[in-house]
Amino acid sequence: MMTEKKKVIIDTDPGIDDSLALMLAGKSNNLDILGVTIAAGNVENQQCTQNALDVLHLIERDDIPVYTGATKPLKREPINARETHGSNGIGNVELEHSKRQAKTGALEFLKTTLEQNPGTTLIALGPLTNIALLLEKYPEVKENIKELVLMGGTYKSHGNCSPVAEFNFWFDPDAAKYVFENLNKPITMTGLDVTRKALLTPNYAKLIKNFDTKLADTIYDMTQFYTDFHWDREGVLGCVINDPLAVAQVIDPSICTGINGNVEIITDGPAIGMSMVDTEGILNKEDNCYILTNCDHKRFFKLFMKTLFPEKEIEIDKILDNELYGN
Ligand code: RIB
Ligand code: CA
User: Fold this and answer.
1) What is the mean predicted confidence (pLDDT) over 62-84?
2) CA-based angle 253:254:258, to the nearest 5?
3) What residue numbers bound the domain in which 65 lies?
4) Within a domain: residue 72?
């Protein structure tokens, strides 16, 4: 029996892993993508927007509308992650440019679309600036949000911008704080605890390269810059593809498991951007988040690769089920 597609809106800052997440979402038969909204993050909003348009064009999903949104955090000075994602945000890979333009008015798109589509899932893959601005300007729309599944934060794993802070919450801690305190709908935090298990190893990258399609080559080329960054800066062999895991969790909520707790975002001082997770009720605060702590990474990569390359299902199972490759 065909299950009904989940209605989603994706808020993102493409970004190499955001681009892989858009590919996964755009090629999934399980998601009805109502639109994509852009927040500044990895690179400036204009570049993130162009990257989103070009990635959707690459996977022949020019039907998905793209809206520009926040160009800077609520309060902090803007930064970027060019050293991680390359000067153009997608590993310095030059994609064929989409001929269409993005639309302006992300907040109004979100408001109108949520009003018309109650029960929509928000997927946030970048800083939460757009989501915070939406809730502040149109608080009534939250009733139409089924849940927010985000990539961001960390529970027990070290940060990637400071010992305790992950980039999306570091970039705009005030937005993250506002969302966690005001959404009052289920939030699933796909943090570094689980995304660090979504490690695209050189083996996996080469497997994708061997599929020998334009999409395969693009993924391989995009992730080379990202892989070099991981080796140079973290001594990790491969690259952590954070954002596709959040999308995969929406497609199949059994891929990761977690624990309920209260998440509070620190907005100043040396721990700025920290997601302080209380799963023991120490602060006597209401649970406001489902914090993912375990991930079946093999199931994730099978879903990721089979969704992008359905014609390669046999090869994917053969390699990913072969313990010779350390899987
Ligand atoms: O910390 C990783 C997150 O920050 C990812 O979403 C990456 O794309 C950046 O936005
Ligand atoms: Ca991102």
Assistant:
1) 97
2) 90
3) 6-320
4) yes
Q: Residues lining ligand 1, CB < 6 A?
A: 13, 15, 17-18, 41-42, 125-126, 151, 160, 166-168, 242-243
pLDDT one-digit tens code per residue, 164-187: 999 999 999 999 999 999 999 999
Q: What is the pLDDT of residues 231-277, one digit of tens each?
A: 999 999 999 999 999 999 999 999 999 999 999 999 999 999 999 99
Q: What is the DSSP letter of 273?
A: T
Report which protein residue has its CA nearest ligand 1's atom 2. 167
What's residue 227's pLDDT? 97
Q: Taking 90 as the threshold, does the pLDDT of residue 325 lie above it?
A: no
- Evaluate whether residue 158 is within a structural domain: yes
Residue 48 lies in a domain: yes
- Which residues is 257 bridged to in the sheet? 294
Residues 134, 110 contacting (CB under 8 angstroms): yes
Q: Is 321 helix (H, G, I), strand (E, B) or coil?
A: coil
What is the full DSSP assignment across 251-295?
H-TTSEEEEEEEEEE--SSTTTTBEEEESS-TT-----EEEEEEE
DSSP state letter for 274: B
Q: CB–CB of 168/275 below 8 Å?
A: no
- Ligand 1 atom 10: residue of nearest CA: 126
Distance of CA 9 to the CA centre of its chain: 12
What's the helix, strand, coil split of the chain in %, to 5?
Answer: 45, 20, 40
Whole-structure pTM over 0.90, yes or no?
A: yes
pLDDT reading at 89 higher than 90: yes
The one-letter code for the residue type at 280 is: E
State the Cα–Cα distance between residues 29 and 137, nearest whole angstrom: 33
Would 88 be classed as within a structural domain? yes
Distance in angstroms (rounded) separating the CA atoms of residues 117 and 219: 32
Helices (H) and strands (E) in the chain, counts: 13, 11
Rounded Cα–Cα distance for residues 60 and 64 (Å): 10
Q: Please state the rounded mean pLDDT for residues 145-158.
A: 98
Count the domains in the chain.
1
Residue 80 Cα to ligand 1 middle (Å): 11
CATH, residue 34: 3.90.245.10
